[in-house]
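Side project, low priority. Logging it here so it doesn't get lost.
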Amino acid sequence: MRSGLRTLAGLVAMSLLLAGCSGNVFELAVGDCFDDGDMALGELEEVGEVPLVDCTEPHENEVYAVVTVDGEVFPGEDAIQAQANEVCFEAFDPFVGLDYESSALDFGWLVPTADSWEMGDRVVACFVYRLDLAKVSGTLEGSSI
């Protein structure tokens, strides 16, 4: 498996408001598109809002899977990220239409923190983006790139 997920891939969901037209990470759905915005700085570890973009316009990321994980106790940061990596990897090929290793795309995720877990957050949101970090217009679903 390739390594090299952007810093954004390890970002976790919680409430930190970012400027601009934004969407709550707790409400992201498959097909939502967004830009990195302030997250591109790589300094944020907790994200509550992402800058939403109409998918027909140039954008950096597209949500391709939203999965609810089970558990009463927060599994820990490493464990939740490993779980996210697994579910996002499994959902990649069916969404993109090409296996991960052959693709010019990569994936990242937004996962619960210990604090958001205590508030009932169990959602992992997987997003796809170009390896060269170029913006895309339209959906990457079925793109086979």
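Brief comment: Residues 1 and 101 are 7 Å apart (CA to CA).
Revisit when time allows.
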